[in-house]
Design a protein that fits this description.
about 200 residues; alpha+beta; 5 helices; about 35% helix; 5 strands; 60s Ribosomal Protein L30, Chain: A; globular
């Protein structure tokens, strides 16, 4: 390889490629794809299905998006950020710590997360355009002594990670409140980043 650095860049690349033995090239391919040429999940380049495919794998369907309950819209774009209006779990009412257990409230937060995903898909056309879940803010309608708000909002946070993988990990606030509209046990809003496609 004497005098390699004196060659033009393209010529150096060609010379370096030619210097790799067939065995070395085969080892590099097998490291990523396995001996049978099939992608191995244990390789360094792990595969993550699209959010749409993940929903199918999880057996989940996006709910029908309800009409806004006031003078607002489901989502507002600002640059590449999408700000989502607060959503609830549907027509259920009651306080966490009195009418709902932590586990039941967790499921309510997960259902709320699905409605947020429906709002994203409605605005962007596909969940696959999301590049990052930036922030989640969750409100828990609970008794004064209840202190497990983070465990409740995990229902939504876990869903986002299940669907988006590492892109679903986000900053978050989980807040206890004295009441929520129509007595719902949880309300959650979110901010996501999306691509320009």
């Amino acid at each position: 390889m004497a005098g390699l650095h004196s060659l033009p860049f393209d010529s150096r690349v060609t010379a370096l490629r030619a210097s790799l033995s067939p065995v070395t090239r085969t080892m590099k391919v097998r490291a990523a794809f396995g001996a049978n040429g099939i992608f191995s999940p244990d390789s360094k380049k792990s595969y993550m299905p699209s959010p749409t495919a993940r929903l199918r794998e999880l057996g989940l369907e996006l709910p029908e998006l309800p009409s806004p309950a006031g003078t607002y819209v489901h989502a507002v774009r600002s640059g590449r950020l999408l700000f989502l209006a607060g959503k609830g779990p549907g027509e259920i009412a009651g306080k966490v710590g009195r009418d709902f257990t932590v586990e039941e409230a967790y499921e309510a937060a997960r259902r709320t997360g699905l409605t947020l995903l429906a709002a994203i898909a409605n605005e962007l056309g596909s969940l696959d355009r999301v590049t990052r879940v930036v922030k989640v803010v969750g409100f828990v309608n609970a008794t004064p002594e209840f202190a497990d708000q983070p465990k409740v909002i995990n229902g939504c946070s876990d869903l986002f990670v299940d669907v988006f993988g590492e892109r679903g990990r986000h900053a978050r606030s989980a807040i206890g409140v004295a009441s929520l509209p129509n007595g719902i046990p949880v309300e959650i809003e979110a901010i996501v980043e999306f691509d320009d496609a």
